[in-house]
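Team,

Forwarding the record for the chain on the shared tracking sheet. I've put the sequence and predicted structure together so nobody has to dig through attachments.
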Amino acid sequence: MSKNTKPEVDAAQEQVYQPGVVPLEHPIQRGDQVIDKVALRKPDSGSLRGIKLMDLLQMDVTSVSTLLPRITTPILTPHDVAKIDPADLVAISTELLTFFLSKATRESLPA
């Protein structure tokens, strides 16, 4: 037995939470590209045009689907958004909701 043995760690266990980045359980296939995570940027007022904030807070699929192409990296097309697995859509929507919380509320949440 070597002194420098390190227990093997599953890749999923190594994943560290990154604010605004959502790993997809079911990657999106776009041609030769596989999208396995999506980064969200905080929407500004222009990104929210035509979307009711209450609908976003209720994770309304139509509202979330309208907003995602405006704030994602890589940029998701409406077709990509329509192919997102429901579990991944909930994860993305949940992360999106954190942008609407006050700083004090975010800091009081458990890590």
